[in-house]
Amino acid sequence: MTYLAPVKDMLFVMNHVAGLEAVATLPGFEDAGPDTAAAVLDECAKLNQDVIAPLNWEGDKAPSSFKDGVVTTTAGFKEAFKQYGAGGWQGVHHPVDFGGQGLPKLIHAACIEMVNSANMSFALCPLLTDGAIEALLTAGSDELKARYLAPMVEGRWTGTMNLTEPQAGSDLSMVRSRAEPQPDGTYKLFGTKIYITYGEHDMAENIVHLVLARVTGAPEGVKGISLFVCPKYMVNADGSLGARNDVHCVSIEHKMGIKASPTAVLQYGDHGGAIGYLVGQENRGLEYMFVMMNAARFAVGQQGIAVSERAYQKAVQYARDRVQSRPVDGSLNTAAPIIHHPDVKRMLMTMRAYTEGCRAMAFVAAAALDAAHAHPDAAVRKQNQAFYEFMVPLVKGYSTEVSLEVTSLGVQVHGGMGFIEETGAAQHYRDAKILTIYEGTTAIQANDLVGRKTARDGGATVRAICEQIQDTEAQLAARSSDAAKAVGKRLAAGRQALLDAAAFIASGAKGSPNAVFAGSVPYLMLAGNVMAGWQLARSLIAAEDQLAAGNEPDFMRAKITTARFYADHILSKAPGVRDSIVDGAAGVTEMALDAF
Amino acid sequence: MTYLAPVKDMLFVMNHVAGLEAVATLPGFEDAGPDTAAAVLDECAKLNQDVIAPLNWEGDKAPSSFKDGVVTTTAGFKEAFKQYGAGGWQGVHHPVDFGGQGLPKLIHAACIEMVNSANMSFALCPLLTDGAIEALLTAGSDELKARYLAPMVEGRWTGTMNLTEPQAGSDLSMVRSRAEPQPDGTYKLFGTKIYITYGEHDMAENIVHLVLARVTGAPEGVKGISLFVCPKYMVNADGSLGARNDVHCVSIEHKMGIKASPTAVLQYGDHGGAIGYLVGQENRGLEYMFVMMNAARFAVGQQGIAVSERAYQKAVQYARDRVQSRPVDGSLNTAAPIIHHPDVKRMLMTMRAYTEGCRAMAFVAAAALDAAHAHPDAAVRKQNQAFYEFMVPLVKGYSTEVSLEVTSLGVQVHGGMGFIEETGAAQHYRDAKILTIYEGTTAIQANDLVGRKTARDGGATVRAICEQIQDTEAQLAARSSDAAKAVGKRLAAGRQALLDAAAFIASGAKGSPNAVFAGSVPYLMLAGNVMAGWQLARSLIAAEDQLAAGNEPDFMRAKITTARFYADHILSKAPGVRDSIVDGAAGVTEMALDAF
After folding, report:
1. Fewer CB atoms near the end CB (10 Å): N or C, chain A?
2. How far apart are the C-alpha atoms of A515 and A533, rounded to whole Å?
3. Residue A154's pLDDT band (boundaries 50, 70, 90)?
4. B203 min Cα distance to partner chain A (Å)
5. Is B389 a catalytic residue?
6. Is the ipTM reported for this complex over the cut 0.95?
7. Which helix (H) or strand (E) holds A65?
8. How far apart are the first and last CA of chain B?
C-alpha cells in the first residue's frame, strides 16, 4: 500500500475541531452527521488507496502524450476516472437535483484531500470539473444547467477553466480572446488559451470549456470580460453529442511535475470560430470566474495538504525500514532504524505538524462555508462568509508554501535514495512546486488577503478572529498540562504578532502601498501559521478531553505532542515574521531597480 | 549570456571583507594580491561564461548515458574539460611542485563558485578530483604522489571518492569492501560502491579511485577502514597507461537533478580483484578521508551559493522582461515589468541576500584556511583552524539549505513559465536538492557542529566568535545611518540567540543527547544565519566607507540595502529558532515511535 487515507485524523478534526455535528444541524445536511461521514470516508479511502494511488508513479513515468491534436493519458487513468464517476465521487457536494449527493463541503474536503494524496495529476481532472460545475450553478441559465450539469456531475464529461493567455497571466485585464455575437444568440470564439489543465484528454466523452473572452466592442480591462461555455463536442437538445467544435489542442507542456496531467495550449476559432454560449450576463465574466476560482483555490490548498500527507507517509515508512547508525542516547548498541534518530524524528514531526495544522485549518474553513450557505440566520451566514473568505488565501497560500518544505523534507529523510527518481519521494517534491503558482501565485493570494480581506474592512475580520483565538488561549491557561501551557504561550505571541502585522497592513495599504506589499507574502505566511497553530491548539484541548475520557489514548497523545511541536517549532517563528513585515520595507523599497 | 560571473561582488568580498591583502602577506602567497585576484577571476569568468555555462541545459536534456559498462557524457563536456585542464583551473590552489598554481584558497573559492554556477553537473568532476588530490597530498607516499598527482592537477586524469555502500551511507562504520594484501605490497579490492560521482566517464584518460575498504583481519567499525588508490587503468613506471584494472561500472542512477553528472555503481574485484595501493597507514583511512571530505564539504557549500547565484540571475532577467499588472503605487498607468512589484522585489532580494551572505561567509572561511595553513605564528594558525573548522558545517549545511529556498523562489518569480522545463528555472530547483544530501546530509553536518565543534570545547569557539561579532556591533553603533542601526539591532539579537543556543547545546550534549540533537539542525541553521548576517554587517560597514570615499556609489548602496534586507528579513528569524532549540525538545522526544 503506497497510501493509507488518514481517516482517523480526518474524523477527529471533523468531529472535534470543525464541528461536524453543528454542520449536520443545518437545513439540507440533516443526514450528514458523524456516521455518514465515517461511512463516506471509508468508501472513499478504498477507491483512492486501491485504484488511484497505484497510478501515481505510473503517471510520472509515462505522462500524458500529444500527437496530432489528440492527448492520450497514462494507461489506467481512463478506467479509474470511470470508477470515480460511477462511485458518485464527482458529485459528493453537488446538488441532488443534478445527480449529486448534496453532502456538506466539510465531507467533500476530506474526499478531495484523499484523491489528491492518491494522485495529484489524476485529481486535477475532477478538481477543474468541480470549478466548472460551480460556475454554471452560480450563473448559468436553466437551459445551460439542464444540458451540461448532469453529465459533469456524473463524471461522464469534464470541465476546464480557460483564463490564461500568453500576455495575460496574473493580470486578467489583458485577456484578448474575443467573442463575436451570432444572430442565433450564440457567440463565435477566437483566441489562444494556455496552461489549460486537462484541456484535452481521452478520459471523458466530452469536455466543457469555460472560457473568458471579450465580446466585440466590450470595454477595456476586467470590466469587459465575459464567460462562455464552449464544449469540445456540440450537445444536441436530447443530450447526445454532435459535431466537433472549433477548439483544438495544439500542444501540451513539458513540465517539472504533475506530468500525467495534460497542460494544453488551446486554439479557439482557427476554422471559422468556436461556438460558445454566454454564461450569465455580458461583461460579468470575471465575477463568475471568481466563484469557481475561490473553489479552485481552496482545492489547490488541499492539494498542498494532500501531497504533504503522502510525502509524510512515505518518509515514515522509509525511516522505519532504513537501518543506519546507533542512537545518540546509547539506548541500543547496534545500528537502529533511522526513525530513532532525533533529527529524523524532528523532520517527520515537522512534516506531520504542518500537514495536520493545515488540514485542521482547511476543514474549519469548509465548515464555515457550509454555515455561510445553509445557516438559517443571515447574521451567522454573513459572519461565516467573512471567515471563509479570509481563510481562502491562507488555505491556498500557506498550505501550498509549506508543502514545498514538507516534500523537501520527504526527500531529505530518504538521503541519497530520495534523489533517485525510482524511490518516488522526488516526484512529490517536483509535483508540489506548481501549487504555489497556479490558481493565483502566493503573491496573488497575498494581494487578496491584504486588499480585500484586511485593508478593506480596516482589519475588523482579523481582529474578530483574534478575539476567538484569545478564548482558546484562556481555555489553555485553565489547563494544567505542560503542553497546554507551552502551546498557550506561543499562541498568544503568534496572535499578537498577527494583530501587529494586520494593523500595519490596514493602516498603510493606501498611503504606503509599496511598504505594505513588500510584506504581503510574509503577512500571508504569518496569518496562515497562526490559523493552523490555533486549530492545533484547539485540537490539543479536544485531545486532552478525549484522553481524560479514556478514548484512543495513543492517538490523543500523538495529537497533543504534534500540537506542542507545531507551537514550539513553527508558531515560534511568528514574532520574527512580524518584524520582517513591520520593519522590513526599507530593505525592499530602497533597492534601485537597476541595481539588481 | 546565461551566466555572468559576479566578479565585482567577489572582489569586494575578497578585498573588503575576507582580507585578501592580509592573505597576500602570508609566506608563499606574496604574488596573490588584489591585482592577481582580479586577473584570475576575469580569465576564469570567460571560460565559465562562454564555454561551460552554455552546456548546463544541454546536460539536463541529454544526460550522461550508460551502455555495456561505458558512460558517455553530454556532448561538449569532454572538450570543455580539456579546456578547463589546459587553462590550469584544476590546479589553481594545488602545489606548484605538482603543476598547480599555488594560489590561496580564497582565490580558489571564487573560481569554484564560478564553475558551479556555470554548470554544477560539470563542476562535480573537478570537485571530486580536488578531493582526491587533497587526500594524496595529505597521506600518499612519495611514489604515489609522483605517479598520480601531476596528471590529476593537469586535468588529464580525474579522481573519485568511494565511500558509500548499500548498507553504509551516513554510517561509514558499516563499510564491508575488503582489501587482501598481496605479496608485492599491493592489495586486491573486492566490493560494491554506490553513488560514485563521475565513477565512470569519457572525459579523461584515466580515473583515480580513492576507495575505503577493510584489510583482511582489520578491526570492526571505523577503526578498521583503510584508504586505497585504485586506478581505472594501471599506471606504468614511466607514467604511461597499462592494463584495465578490475573495477567496473555496472549502472548509473536516474536522478532528479545534476543529470549530466554520472552517478555510478562500481563493482570491485569481480574478475580476480582490483589492484589497489594503500594510502598512508592501514586502518587510518577514515582520518585521511576526512581531509578530503572537509574540502569537499566546503566545495558543496559553494555549490549551494553557485546555484543560488545562477537562479538569481535568471530570475532577475525574467523579472525585467515579463510585463504584467500595474504597479501598486500607481506610479505607472500601464502594466509594468514585474520587477516593479514589491513582492517580486522581495523575492529577488531574498535570493540576493542569501547568496551574498553565504558567499561572504565562505570567502571569510577560505581566508581563515589560508592563514591556518600558512601563517608563521602557530597561535594564529590554531585560531584560524578552529574558526575554519567551525565554519565548514555552516558553509556546507546553511548555504545548501538556503539554496533550496533560493532556487524555489527562482521558479516562483517565473510563475507558470517556471514549471515548464524549457525555461530552465526548474533545473536549478531539481539540481539543488542533492546539495543537502551528499557529502554528509545537513543532519550529519549538524552532528559535527554540535559534537566536535561546540560541545567538545564547551562552546569556547562559538563564544570567541561572538566576541568578534560584538566588535562589529560596536562599529555599527558608532555609525549614524538608519541601515547601520537596523542591522546592528538584528545582529545583537542574533548573536544573543546563538549564544543561548550554544549554551544549551554545550551543557546538554552528554546528559540529554536526545533533546540536544532534536535541535541540532535548527542550531546549524541559526549559526549559519548569524555568521552570514555578520559578514553582511561587515560588508555594510565597508560599503558605507567606500561610499563616503565616492567609490562605485550604486554598487555600494545596493550592498548596504542588501545587508539591511538580510538583517530585517532573515536574521530576524534568529530568536524564533533559538526558542525552537531551547524549548522545542519535548515536541520531538515525547512522540512515541509507534505513533508516526
Report:
1. N
2. 27
3. very high
4. 24
5. no
6. yes
7. strand A65-67
8. 49
